[in-house]
Amino acid sequence: MKIIRVIRVALLLLLTAGCAGPQREIRDLRTLPQRASAYLDPASADLPLLSKDAQDNLARELLKRHFSPWHAKSPPLPASRAFAAASDLSAIPIYGENLRRRHPSWLAGLARRADPLRSPSLDEMGIAVRTVEVRALPTRRPAYRDPRLPGEGYPFDLLQVSALPAQTPLRIVRRSTDGSWFFVESGAVAGWVQAADVALVDTTTAAAFQRDRYLALPQ
């Protein structure tokens, strides 16, 4: 037993010695400036990239798109969009947060919750009251592809569409059968959000939001 213990200690020392090589500094860090401003042309560094007219036009287009859910003149997206993910995912094996395969009945239940029999079930103005996760189906639970495949499994949730910040204007076009989820359209994406994260908006409130002034801040 003493010999085995000595061998284990010797192996541990060899492994740790191999990880303790000399630390080398990347030459670029010493020879190239690490400030982004160092690569600007001093003659034009203070000039705007866009003219004021171009900036104003882009700002108007951005706000028009941002508030477009409150001015929707076209019909809502096809009802099939609200539960399309259930059909798409039924063709492939999917896995849950425990990395075990989900039973087909799980997707079927989500499709029923999306209420495919009513189209649309709502057409209301709304607004996000906090940052909301936009989901492909009315659930917070994830759906992964086989985690043994490259680039699959956690954290690549197939049901995560996007996220929207608080005060994003929304068009509410569908309610889940249990009332806990809304299918919404924003100026950028559409999907399911939790009903508790959304408030209805009347025309007076919508008009006040659109009269306000907005500022773009650099990241």
Task: Give your account of this protein's structure.
This protein has 219 residues and is an alpha+beta fold. The protein is 28% helix and 16% strand. The chain is built from six helices and seven strands. A five-stranded antiparallel sheet has the order 6-5-4-1-7, with no helix packed on it. Strands 2-3 form a two-stranded antiparallel ribbon. The longest helix has 17 residues, at 2-18. The model has no long low-confidence stretch (mean pLDDT 85).
Topology summary:
Elements lengths: L1 H17 L8 H5 L20 H15 L17 H6 L14 H10 L10 E5 L3 E4 L24 E5 L4 E7 L5 E5 L4 E5 L3 E3 L2 H9 L8
Intertermini distance:
61 Å
Structural class label: alpha+beta
Note poorly predicted spans: none
Q: Give a short account of the largest sheet.
A: 5 strands, antiparallel
Q: Looking across the biggest beta sheet, what order are the strands in?
A: 6-5-4-1-7
Radius of gyration: 26 Å
Q: Main attributes?
A:
219 residues, two-stranded antiparallel ribbon, alpha+beta, 5-stranded antiparallel sheet, 16% strand, 7 strands
Short summary of the structure?
By secondary structure, the protein is α+β, with helices and mostly antiparallel strands.
